[in-house]
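Notes, p. 3: input format for complexes.
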Amino acid sequence: MSVLDHYPDYEVVIGVEVHVQLTTNTKIFCSCSNEVIKEPNTNICQICAGHPGILPVLNKKVVDYAIAAGLATNCTINQLSYFARKHYFYPDLPKGYQITQSDEPICKNGYITIQTEDGHAKKIRITRIHMEEDAGKNIHSEHSNESFVDLNRAGTPLLETVSEPDISSAYEAREYLKTLRSIVQYLDICTGNMEDGAFRADTNISVRKKGDPKLGTKCELKNINSFKFIGDSIEYEIERQIELLESGQKVRQETRLWDTKNKKTIVMRSKEEAADYRYFADPDLPLIELTPEYIASIKATLPELPHETIERLCTQYGLSNYEANILVGDRELTRYFETAYSHHPSKQIINWILRDVLGFLKEANIALASFSVTPEKLARIIQLMESGKINNHAAKQVFETVIQTNGDPEKIVKEQGLEQVGSVDELEKIVLEILAANPQVVADYRSGKDRLMGFFVGQAMKQTAGKGNPQILQELFKKHLHN
Ligand SMILES: [Zn+2]
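Output follows (483 residues plus zinc ion):
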């Protein structure tokens, strides 16, 4: 469902810019630590604080990470690129310019493939990926009319990834961001954490009548820090822009923010005039020259990428594309699945992960890493069930007990007396008793009321205190009712 369903004459055009914060040990142009340090202005030197006369020195790891990101997103790696100065004034930018890349970014003309809402593969083109430094932070006091500048973040390495306006719904925008985030996580170059700003997305949104060759005026939604808010804010913005046009007004080019409380976008600043950043090549930094051999050496170190993992999970474990996609959305979840499967290769593993494991994690809002049902324990619970020792109902009970007590599945089965009333002979005796005690129901069943099978199995489950195997019981009832 999208707000666009209410406006069949319109379409939306979305382009996305993402700032990917790199997990290098040090900052991009100095040897200050790249760790997030809370105490303001304690992780700075003359270079990241922008003193006059300083000389930045490029961190080679940033280049390696940029090449890896470019290769993983099907980009051409520019063998010759350079840094430029982007001039603007802001208190958190003491040099008066940001070192970034302009005309010749390190990566260009790539794409990533996403799944659309109806399950098709769609290529979203990537215009460019470039390296740049982050600025500091302005902190506005809540108690006094003062503002402060913290430069700890200044000089943090970023990759800015710019997409072409190929995205045509809020759903696709979310899928694009999820795919890109899992790529940088798989590459191990970014934590992907959106809440603390390590993966920040700006979306450019415009609407137009279908068939109109001209793009509408776009608005930029800045720094929205969750997939849900990104989806909600795009939906809101589509409707706001269409309503403006429908009432004969114009969309103004603006940067807008998402107000999570009131669930609407609000103006941050108007962008009537394009800013002139007076770009020029940074004379303090050499050209970045890459040989084909060097690019190939980075390529050789690339890990398995999300789309490759999806393919492998489908062929190796017989998962559906849908199942594999969910696992790959979270690298840890893929590991969890593969570990569980290695302990007990069963089709039930994926079902339990998608239904019970993810269901619980979402409800309790906890991370997989602190989940007490380890992949080994999940595999053992499923094994207990498939070997006939416990039934499905008891397996769920063991699962929940492990969550609460962190206990051992086999011990829990013993302690709670969950073993199935096992032998077919034993169960058959119960079945015959129930049939003998309910002649009218038996007659009704035989006259065609098939759904009474539920009654019989229910009675037997009651007799076995829930420990009978419902499949075996059903077969036994059929055997005796059908002759
Ligand atoms: Zn520094």
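The chain has three domains: 3-296, 306-415, 424-481.
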